Amino acid sequence: MWIFEGILYVILLLVFIRYDRKKRLWIKTVSQEEKFEHYLSELSATYGKQKNIEEAVAEVEESHTVTLPTEHSYVRIYGAMCAVIREDGDMLSDGYSVFQRNLQYLKEEIRENLLLCKSKMHGFTGLDVLSVLPVCFLPVVRLWAIRVSEGLSAYYYGSYGMLTTVLLFVATIGIYGLILWLFLPDEEQKDRYRLEKWLLQFPWMAYLLDVYVSRHYTKCLKKNEQIKQLQGFGNVRAFLMKKVCFFAAALLGSVLFLTVYQNAERSQILTQIKIPSYQLMMLPERAQEQVKKQYQELVAQVVPETFKMDQEAFKEHLEQLAVWEELKQELSLTESVQGAEEFVKALFLQVRAYQGIRIAWYHILFIVVVSILAFQIPELFLVAEQWKSREKRMSECLRLQTVVLLLIHYEKTTVEEILSQMENFAVLFQSQMAEAVDHFSYDRIRSLQKLKQEIPDEPVQRICDALEFCEELPVEEAFLNLEDEREYFLKKNMEERRNYQGECIALAKMAAYLPMFLLIILKLVVPFVAEGLSELHAYSQSMTGFF
Question: Which phi and psi angles does 514 have, rounded to 5°?
């Protein structure tokens, strides 16, 4: 039991280390974004004095350093701003510098995001530790309970103890992962299907999936589009391979669990003492321990020798054993025929219970049900990502508006260049943007209309409408209302993201207390109640036998 529990603790520790590393990395990124916002403020003030981008950047970098990774969206937008001003120079719009105005847009976006991130940190403080803490006290609870009542060891070290321990660890790991999933933003991992893609290198595996896709082409095509919309990459073949991996892992895991569970049941039966308590009460304490040891030796000896024996044959075989004769003399069963018969019957039922532990139809049904449910887990993950993608979609729309505002004030800016830059900065919408850029050269209007159909978000719809107007109007006039729309969307984005974060924090707080409730119910309430009822029943039997 200790080895099995140690394996569970190691798994929990690995999960904790993995997610804690992601958490620290995200907190570090937020701190870097805050420093970058200060850097942009200093750059805007310095550029306003010097009107030279190279000198302004050089002066600011003496006191501020950009620590964000170069692939970060804020750094990429800032790099695009600097590239535009170096190539085409700065210009005035309504009496204000376009470069400084663009810096202001980027600072506003960063500042609003920082406010939300700090609010999220405050709301999630301590919830991840609270969800893991109850499992850490599991050995302490077990030792204390067994010290209170030695009879509880059957519940903590037997099959019930193993089953509830596994359930508690699985619930803890799942809830801890849920809390961190709600807390951390989605990672843009291109290697999310690394294992699945490696398995698809086997020709027979790829062939079987291709056959399935060809037979369910319409369904798989819709699923493929859904995966690309949520993740920006991936395909249905890798997704199906992930479902197969979950199925195989659940199948092997359930078989292993049943094997360990049945071994625990057998060990529990071998340690049981079926001697009536009123007979043990007549013996001294040292003699009681000796009788219990002899009883366990007797059970271990007759289990492999009495397979498929009926009760009469079992009794005859028992009479031939020296351990049985010693046990009868210790318990004075030679003088009581009725007491010996009851003892033999209890021992026979105990041996039959041990021998009756085998794979049954309901075990096979359990394996099948668990495997089928595990096969659907990636579908649940996809639905969860769809719910979580609201925040990511709003951030991406705001980013695309900022990118468009960088370009519209320059005369040589074209619609195709705007679409190309939107594709460069898109993540969720990258596949749709790439398709629009590819088709734009030979069918402009239809490519924009298709883009509007595929991306229903209002900011992107407005940008596409303005791009259509660019056929008749200059680019700057077509996007005349974009600044006001962005300001409105920024406020709306903040409000919706606050509501979304409130939902996440409420769900995380509710989930964080579940492991503690499970520990109290499964490891304290149920064993103590069951042991109390069993002791009450044994006491009533002993009193009946005594009188």
Answer: -65, -45
